[in-house]
Amino acid sequence: MALQTLRNAAPPAYAAQIPELIDTQCGYCGRAVSMQRLGPIVEYRDEDGPHGTHYIGMHTSYLCPRSQCSRPSLAFFRLTVPSSGGIYISDGPQFIPRGMPEPMPDLPSDLQDDRREAWSCYYGGDYRAAVIMGRAAVQRAVRMLNAQGAGLKAEINDLEQKHVITSSLKDFAHETRIAGDDAAHPTTLGKVDRDEAKESLDFMDEFLEHTVALPARRAARKQARTT
To answer: Interior CA angle at 59 toward 53 and 64, to 5°?
Structure first.
């Protein structure tokens, strides 16, 4: 089947795959919300794949339910239709505007920016970029903690050996580091999927929260008590 022009409405079998509700981050207000589909559902691409498989590009709109926002976002999906039958979402949703994470309290501005960019890449479907930025955020945090060593792996281990971080936090940092290292060498890595990227960024958040944000919060409260 050749590439098709824009259609006004997707066939029912395809449209049925698009969920009514999606839990995501609103690209306008930055809050975690359950967005309601507005429709209509539009098929904008239909192309051939190997072994008789078809790939269907679809988009529709979703509405932020918060009364303070109530703005629509455009969501893109990729459906796979194998020759053996069945239809499933193989990529997406990818939102315009991209979702934004809620800020992590007490995180320094440079780390806040790295973290925001990592999650923004994730919400926009740039999963390889997301894990690379997650690694960058962990590296910045590690060096803020005065780690020593030749490379990030050695620096993370150095912090654990000095008892600056726990063994669990060391493992979180390494998980994010490994994902970023692999993503930076595409000749040895397959595609980074949505679940892999989210897992890597969840590890990043755990590391940043416990090594930087919580200690800063604790220090601020201690200072407040003494004054």
So the answer is: 140
